[in-house]
Every structure is written in C-alpha cells, then in structure tokens.
Amino acid sequence: MNSGEFRRRGKEMVDFVADYLDGIEGRQVYPDVEPGYLRPLIPTSAPEEPDMFEDILNDVEKIIMPGAASPACTELETVMMDWLGKMLKLPEAFLAGQVGEGGGVIQGSASEATLMALLAARTKVVRRLQAASPGLTQGAIMEKLVAYSSDQAHSSVERAGLIGSVKLKSIPSDGKFAMRASALQEALERDKAEGLIPFFVVATLGTTSCCSFDNLLEVGPICNEENMWLHIDAAYAGSSFICPEFRHLLNGVEFADSFNFNPHKWLLVNFDCSAMWVKKRTDLIGAFKLDPLYLKHSHQDSGLITDYRHWQLPLGRRFRSLKMWFVFRMYGVKGLQAHIRKHVQLAHEFECLVRQDPRFEICAEVTLGLVCFRLKGSNKLNEDLLERINSAKKIHLVPCHLGDKFVLRFAICSRFVELTHVQRSWEHIRQLTTDLLRAEKD
Questions:
Q1: Which domains does the chain have, with CATH numbers?
Q2: Cβ neighbours of 416 (radius 10 Å)
Q3: Can you tell me the distance from the alpha carbon of 442 to that of 436, in angstroms, rounded to the nearest whole number?
Q4: pLDDT tens for residues 179-208?
Q5: pTM of the entire predicted model
C-alpha cells in the first residue's frame, strides 16, 4: 500500500467509523450470535496470496460487527492464533482448533509472556508438590524453586524471576552463544544436590545480542525428563519460522510447554502484538482464574468460549487480533515470507561488505537480519566508533558484549529498507572509521 492508497483508505475508515456512530441507535446493545459463531465463517488458515482491501472491509461488517465486541473479539483472536500457529507449523498440541487442549493468546510483549509462563509453572509445581506432601507450605516450596536461562537471555527473563520471587540462574553458553545440554545438566545436578527444586527453563531462539539459538533438541528432553516447564522466547526470530528454509530453527518446539514471539517485531503487525501459545491452557487458567460476581457471564461454564482474562495479567484487552487479520489477508503468507527473505538477504549483503574491509571482523554467525561486527582493535576504539556513528544521526546502532568484546550490531528492521540504504550505511561507517583511525594516529 503506497502513501496515496493509504490516504484514500484512511479516509474510507473514518467514513466507516462515522457511519457506525451515526447509525449506532439502530444497532442492538447485545449481539444475537452464539458462542462459536465466527470460526465457521472464515477459512481455517491464512491465505497464500493477498486479499483485496474491499473484501476485508466487507467482511468486517458481515462477520465481525454482528458479534462486536463480544464474542468476535475473543473468537477472532483464537482463530488468528491458529492461523499463525499453522504458518509456523507448530505441533497440533499448541493449537486450539475445535477441541484442542492448547491454544494461543495475544500478550502485550514477550516480557509479559515469559512472566505468565513462569507464574503458571510456579503454581503448577507448588500444587504438584503439595498434593504429594500435604504438609508442605507454599513458602517452604517457593524458597527452593530455581529457574534457568542462558547467559544470553534477555533481561526481561531475569525481571520475570524478580517479579515471581524465584531464583533465576544463568547457564553459560557455548562458543556459538547457545545453551547446551551439558551446561544445563551440570547446573541441575548441583542445585538438586543442594536441595533446590528446578522447575522452569527459558530457551531463547534468536538472542538479542547476536541472534544465537539455544539447542532445543538437547535442552528440551532434559526439561521433560526433569518435569520442568520449558518456555521458548523467540521474540525477534519467531517471525522467520514462517519461511520453510528457517523452520528448522524451531525444531524441538515439541518439547516446550509454551512458546512466544512478537509479530510486532518483524511480521508487519503494529505494536503491541506478542503471540504466545501453550500446550495446556488449563495450566494458565488454573494459575490466574478468579470469578467475582461482577465478571461472571452466562457462558462461562459452558465450555463454549475462551475467557482470555484468565490468560494474561490485565483483565481488560483490546481487539488486537483484528490487525493480525488485516495484515495476514493484505499480504498473504507469500507476501510475509517475501518480507522476511528480503531482510535476511540485505543482512547478508551487509555482512559481505564488512568482510571485504580488512579493518573489520564479523563476530557471530549471520542467520537472519542481524549482523554483529566490530573494528579490529580495542573495545575503546569500537566505543569511540559507535559514538561517532550515533552522533552523526544518519543511522543508529545498538551495541552488545559478546564475551569480553564490545560489538556493534547492524539490524535490518524497516519495511522500507532497500539495498541502497544498506550500501549508504556501510559507506558512512567506513568513512567515520577512516576519520577515527586518522584522529587516533594524530
């Protein structure tokens, strides 16, 4: 959609809303539709090719408005999460379907998803241990609980541990910045010998620092054997798994209890939209379900509806699945795949440019849209280069530490980025580098 069409469609949407408000007195306060009305009205999976905007807007009036905002808000979310799960080729256990035990929910961020998974896992292990030993108090169990993540995991994982009041231990990553079975097993044996209770592991697919991938095929079986909840955080990289050539990066997801990634990062859906799936939705509902009288409704015990207020931290929620529906239909699966592939190709173009300059080095394998590189030399030299790059305000880079090295990160993010932008960025970096090295000599 170019800027001209965007203006035209925007005006049409204003008319749509104004017409709705003008005719609001002619609409019923409470819908006639019954729970489950929506799923039979839309396809079971996302379209491969783009749909027409007019068709989508007509479907809003025909399919959504009869159940707006309830049950359409809830039911479209359930179906869209199934659409997205199928795009990723998630195991059936994670999909709601018609009778599945799992399902997806839109959280606000990956941070929320990690926290929800940790709290659900905490409740599950406390109840299991108390059922086995009724004399155990919650406090006695809580003080022994321990969770694990790689030393490359996002800081939000540590924050979830703080909020959940459980110990979180960092597992040293290997030479490719991935968590492996041997390091996790060693930590488990040590902690169990000290009387601690391992209960939760976060595996990261596409770490923030360098887009490394924890080894699910090694870590997953250990989690299952030790009866620990395995949560997968693929906040950035998860979008790429809709492409067959990147789907292998998700191998081992079948061992997980929950999985999360952010369509708002790389799948063209506006913030906020963080997709989370669980194998057993009762694990979430059982941890957070409260039913005061003012929140009760006639269908809550019918088994016909999904009550998402039990799946998340807030009670209120927006109609976020509507923007997923529009994006999936406007682009089609093939359009979204093309978007991902273009960014990955541009990242490799930048990698090639870096490798052609002997002053620089690549610091981590380039798998998706992130390139980690640095100027050969001291950390101070690279810190000075980053200062020059960001002070010039033509491009913006965010650094990281990989081992003891200060590293620069070039991330392909924008929907509008083209090869010319990448080439100009590299020429800009090269010129600033030349200026810096000249100044160092002087």
A1: 3-9+26-64 (no CATH), 71-318 (3.40.640.10), 334-440 (3.90.1150.10)
A2: 6
A3: 10
A4: 999 999 999 999 999 999 999 999 999 999
A5: 0.90
